[in-house]
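Continuing from the previous page of notes. For each protein in this section, the sequence appears first, followed by its structure tokens. Read the first protein now.
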Amino acid sequence: MGSFCVSITSAKNDPDKATVGFVVANAAVGSDQDTMVFLSTEGVWLAKKGYADDIEEDGFAPLRDLLASFIEAGGKVYVCSPCCKKRSIDETDLIEGATIVGGAKLVEWLANGSPCVTY
């Protein structure tokens, strides 16, 4: 099994990018890739409970459903620690299945040769 990374830096500031990022992540995990979504900068808001519930872009499934499907399929959601700290988000604020990590986790994933796309 290969691996795949989707880096998402957008949330309600660009719901189209945030949604498409999770569409691609679902395609990757559905294609038998060990898939991680790395949320950084504004993207960390997507891991906060309830935040994504009202994000719905025309032509796509609601973001809350895309998130749930991704996690249910075994996808990993990693959330940038310093980005969370800057926004006063901690582990108790996160949706189930999301984990706060340092940048070293992303580096480790990519160092093993994983391709990465960014939204």
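Done with the first. The second protein uses the same format. Note its length before scrolling.
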Amino acid sequence: MRRRSHWILGLAAGAALFLTGCGTVKIGRVLSDPYHYHNRDVRVEGNVTHSFGAFAAGGYQIDDGTGKILVISNRGVPSKGARVRVSGTVTSGVTVMGRSFGTAIRENKHKLTGFVPPG
């Protein structure tokens, strides 16, 4: 009986970690309720539609099919057409190179997951 309860508890804990730690949030969801996500860490995935930067800093816009969002990076920017998974903090009222953006993500890290030819 004791072994069974340990096994069930371990299985439940593993499932909880899998479901909360691996998921991405849809960009459309962040944009539709920015107050809920403000100053929270999120993970999004999409295709880079625009990219700009100088040296190791800059920004890029990603689109996951539900919306587009600006990502601000201090680690370099992926090129247009790259597929990326981004972890970062949602911010609002961001101004980049004289242009205002309502909601953006300050990148903690990104990982290239593929390449989609632009077009």
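What the second structure shows: The domain at 24-115 is CATH 2.40.50.140 (OB fold (Dihydrolipoamide Acetyltransferase, E2P)). The radius of gyration is 17 Å. We return to this in next week's lecture.
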